[in-house]
Write a structure and sequence with these properties.
The protein contains nine helices and 14 strands. The chain is α/β, with parallel strands linked by helices.
């Protein structure tokens, strides 16, 4: 069994149930992406897995322990999370922001130790942000800031990193830069990466495991060949998709799609309505 899993998990806001009776395992030392339409429960699931929000019933288990009763600092030494569109306090330098990742290890008055400074510099080096150490975070570009936030997560020295739409608002080059960095961390350091992505082709290209949600329930979970299929995309997004192969990775790729109207359209439609190098929702 994997280190992190849920058992009959139900999450809601007030009386509205968002995630329903969910059983899911997060593969160890792999990249997992969660996909689905807006409002299907992707971010809600991510927040529940990291205890940012509580759940109504069921349980989230990490290393054999229910995380709702785990000590906060101990949990923060195991998992780091980057929320959607994180905001830093005005005036912080890059080094100061990344130093916050050392909070789970601080004692007493919270002074940084020699080990803390070494880890901070290591995280900056790995993410290619060491040259920005003394620059204000506000002065950086979107892609640079995102790498700095990832550096802060690395400074926590956790084996699991959770990211909620890490490529939002970034241009194509910076999106690729961030995803390649996460893939490098997974391959070279065996970090377990879990992220919400809107781009189906990015999910297929970088993920080892994909969880497709609709209305708070899993439609399909598995490798990209099992999930990025016309049938699954029809159920999850209500689209008629034509799937090909990425010529560089040989993974499935959504080449074009039509919105389904009324009766499902024939899968071999010859005339595309949309063509996309990158399909987002």
């Amino acid at each position: 069994m994997n280190r992190l899993y849920t058992d009959r998990l139900n999450i809601g806001y007030g009386e509205q149930l968002i995630v329903k009776d969910l059983n899911v395992e997060i593969p160890d030392r792999k990249i997992t992406t969660i996909i689905g339409s807006n409002g299907c429960g992707k971010s809600t699931l991510l927040k529940a897995l990291t205890r940012i929000i509580s759940h109504q019933s069921g349980k989230v288990v990490l290393d054999g322990k229910i995380i709702s009763s785990e000590n906060t600092k101990i949990l923060a030494q195991k998992m780091a999370i980057l929320p959607q569109s994180p905001e830093s306090a005005s005036g912080l330098t890059v080094g100061e922001l990344v130093s916050y990742g050392r909070f789970p290890y601080q004692k007493g008055f919270g002074r940084l130790t020699k080990k803390d400074y070494e880890v901070i510099d290591w995280a900056l080096e790995v993410t290619g942000t060491i040259d920005y150490k003394f620059r204000p975070v506000d002065a950086l570009s979107g892609g640079q800031r995102q790498r700095v936030w990832i550096a802060m997560a690395l400074a926590q020295e956790t084996e699991m990193i959770f990211l909620d739409e890490p490529t939002t608002y970034l241009d194509m080059a910076h999106q690729l830069e961030v995803l390649e960095l996460l893939q490098k961390l997974n391959i070279e350091q065996e970090r377990t990466i879990v992220m919400v992505l809107h781009d189906l082709n990015q999910a297929a290209r970088f993920a080892d495991y994909i969880i497709a949600l609709k209305d708070g329930c899993i439609v399909k979970a598995g490798n990209c060949e099992e999930v990025i299929t016309p049938d699954v995309l029809r159920k999850v997004f209500h689209i008629d998709a034509h799937i090909g192969k990425d010529p560089w990775t040989n993974k499935p790729m959504c080449l074009t799609y039509n919105l389904l109207k009324g009766e499902p359209q024939h899968e071999k439609m010859d005339i595309p309505v949309y063509s996309a190098l990158s399909v987002t929702y």
